[in-house]
Fold this protein.
Amino acid sequence: MWLQILVVALGAIFILRTMYDIYAIKQQQHQLQIQIEELKKSNEALEQDKQRLQDPQAIEDVARDELGLVKPGEVPYVK
């Protein structure tokens, strides 16, 4: 009788542990799926920037606005 109770208890512990492992894996899978979606969005934004910066005018605009560069003969000023 005690052996049967022990076997059932060990079986229940094994089943509960397995269920917890499955739950933890599904949670991790969900977090990774969210991370994948965020990385896809970031990648799309970077691809758009790459396409935009193929235009020489866009490169000049970035150089002027973000880096404060000026063409020879121009006088720089602070905004």
